[in-house]
Amino acid sequence: MFSRSIKSLAFTTALSSSFILGAAPLAAEQSLLVQPVDDIRDPYYIGLGLGMSFLKPEANSVALTLSQDSDFAYRVFAGYQFDDHWAVELFWADMGQAEFSSGSSVVGIVEYQSFGVGGLYQYPITENWDVFATVGVGRLRNSFQLIDAERVEDSFIYGGAGVMWNIAKTWDLRAEYDYYDTDAQMLSFNIVKRFGSATPRRIATLENKVQQQELALAAVQTAPQTASMAVKKQETCENYSVELEGVVFARRSVDLNVRTKKILDEVSQKLLTLPDGITFEIRAHTDNEGTELYNYTLSLARARNVRDYIAAHGVALSRIEAQGYGEWRPLESNETEAGREANRRAELVLIGIENYVEDTGSCSKLAAP
Fold this sequence. Notes:
By secondary structure, this protein is α+β, with helices and mostly antiparallel strands. It folds into 2 domains: 2-31 and 43-195, Porin, CATH 2.40.160; 200-363, CATH 3.30.1330.60. It has helices spanning 2-22, 200-219, 258-271, 292-311, 337-343; strands at 44-55, 65-68, 70-81, 86-102, 105-124, 129-145, 155-168, 171-181, 184-195, 279-284, 320-324, 346-351. The strands form 2 sheets. Strands 1-3-4-5-6-7-8-9 form an 8-stranded antiparallel barrel. It has a 3-stranded mixed sheet with strand order 11-10-12, with helices on one face. The longest helix has 21 residues, at 2-22. The radius of gyration is 29 Å and the shape is rod-shaped. It starts with a helix and ends in an 18-residue tail after the last strand.
């Protein structure tokens, strides 16, 4: 019987492996700048897990020996993600069976099933990896064969921990260990499907948070206004050629790297020389890895990070608008890594440039839309 458990573990490990392989100035140093918007995932999810159970029922006789204490197990679960850290989850698990022997004969079988509800907290450690912990309440059900027995206590408080890998738009892989009771634990490898994106309530909550961040930023904006310069209308955009070429982002990131900051330092100084009648729009974009809601949120956060960095160099915040365009305006194909990298970008548009340039066609990249 024990060999059956070893085969089950090998099967589970192989299956989980196939899943993975297949698959101006503000405060001293910008401490009050707008923080990145939450990494919002699709709120609803379901999952299936395969793994190994570890079972240790107590024998009521010294003549009985626990001959099988592990078995193939599986679980199904469903949950709702409140934000980028917290979720609530329901689960049901069939944990297989333990066996008692007397001599060479099997004289008792104890089957295990469990179900419960609990909370999950997850914390990102890289762009695609999270660690998480679970805690909740549940019940164990035992079925007995060949022996007359009953479970003394069937309710439990469980806890668990694991790692999660975001492998695709709406798919995650999870490896976790769950402790249900002293006689029942489970190690499982799980595949998770997420759905239900872009609900109006979640978008409204997101926008409200962004607005609160902007109010906090505006309250500490103390940059002196640069004096207006009398500028004659020119024939071309030669003196207004200000581009954010080279401002790109890592996957699932809003951070500005060293090269990007150097570009923005130069751009900020150029923007300070332009007349007050010209305002600026930062347009940020993403690749197509993630849901539309997630990518819109990410692009909005990227645009605001660029805006805030420029504002910290003395450009009036009232002159800078930040817009996110999600995955909807790609420059290159998202089928290649080079194309996706090119699409994770920010652009600059000068609003009102037509009042200073005769031929706005000479500055098509800068003029709206």
